[in-house]
Amino acid sequence: QIQLVESGGGTVQPGGSRILSCVGSGFTFSNYNMKWHRQAPGKERQLVAIIASGGASTYYANSMKGRVTISRDNAKSTVYLQMTSLKPEDTAVYYCNVDVPESYWGNGTLVTVSS
Predict the structure, then answer these.
(1) pLDDT digits (tens, 9 = 90+) for 54-104
(2) CA-to-CA distance for 5 and 97, rounded, in angstroms?
(3) How far apart are CA 4 and CA 17, in angstroms?
(4) Which residues of 24-49 are buried (b: 16+ CB within 10 A; e: fewer)?
(5) 3 state DSSP class of 78
(6) Could you give the count of Cα atoms lying within 13 Å of 59 in the half-sphere of its Cβ?
């Protein structure tokens, strides 16, 4: 079955950086766009970034634009989210997602930005 497993979360100081990973299985990873979303405590889940199946095209939502880079390694069935200049308001559970076309989600990885 289709699975997405995120990793890389943890506690980081304000201004710091973090790289998240998401490994997909059970589907042909290289055929699908991949997305990262986040959900902060008490708030709705929001889109962070999208990367096209081949990796050549990306989209960033305004929430973290200029501070995140999405990338992928299709040989490893992995999508990454590199985050920099992190702020306390970036504290959230970060999820990866694929629509095949049914929507599948990982369990998320918690990033806490705190001094």
Answers:
(1) 999 999 999 898 999 999 999 999 999 999 999 999 999 999 999 999 999
(2) 10
(3) 23
(4) beebebeebbbbbbbeeeeeeeebbb
(5) strand
(6) 10
